[in-house]
Amino acid sequence: MxxxxxxxxxxxxVEELLSEMAAAVQENARIPDEHLLSLxxxxxxxxxxxxxxxxxxxxxxxxxxxxxxxxQV
Length: 73
Description:
This is Zinc finger, SWIM-type containing 7. The protein is mainly alpha-helical and about 70 residues long. The protein has helices at about 10-30, 35-45, 45-55, and strands at about 60-65, 70.
């Protein structure tokens, strides 16, 4: 996992982390523990709870004809 540079903004750190996670999932079909710990450090325990909802397929994307998109939990 990449080390955050001093002065890097939180959105940049999160974007890098999510990019690394996507690459890991494509390669191994799983998220490494160190990435999960990083998510928990940044977002708190709610990040792990949110991933659990995704794992249980409890999140649905609803799209309207106008193009508006909403996630239903």
